[in-house]
Design a protein that fits this description.
Mean pLDDT: 85
Largest sheet: 7 strands, mixed
Radius of gyration: 21 Å
Distance between the termini: 49 Å
Helix content: 25-40%
Oligomer: single chain
Number of strands: 7
Shape: globular
Number of domains: 1
Order of helices and strands: EHEHEHEHEEEHH
Strand content: 15-25%
Amino acid sequence: MQSGVREMDLRTPVIFYANHAYWWDGFWSQLCTEEFFRQRLHIIIEFQQLRKHRFFTRIGAFSLDQSRPRSLPATLNYAAELLADHNERQNALWIFPQGKIEHVDKRPLVFYKGTASIVSRLLEKVPHVYLVSVVSRIEYLEEQKPELFLSFREPLLVSKGNFHGTNNLTAYMRGMTENHLDELGEKIQNRRLGDVMTIVRGRASVNRKSEAFGRFVRMSREEDIA
């Protein structure tokens, strides 16, 4: 996690924009909120997914229905109002501008303009908004079970003065996400993981149990010999 993410001004709303490669993405927003931030969490999820998995509403999710274009302005306005609402906690929105689940290495990414449109509407209500790039990759390394890697980049503080339209902001976020994903992938590939922080550790995988059993057997034999 780069500097500045946990030092954000709590009076300024934040939008975390992330790649969408896995069904579990919504849960990770809740995990990060509980682990690192004290925020009022909101998540935009595609309408059909939220309809099938209503429990997402328990962690602040609401839907955006791309099949009904006329409903989009109302949804974007609703998101801006939520973020602009004064609260004792920082208002945070997690959004996936791809709009659907796609492979983590697909290039180029396609980003919808909804995120930038929310920023535009929000700046009519508040002086600033943070934008934070978040990317995720699931990889198999030395474990039988997969490992999840999450990476946050330094927040970008957006105001009316440096907002140059939805097209430019959408292009910026798309490029940032592609670069961020490639950087994380290269870091994992080359095992440059010295600064990685473990948030949740699951049960031991089969290979770890096997290694532990092997050590126990060797120690027992050594004691018998001694």
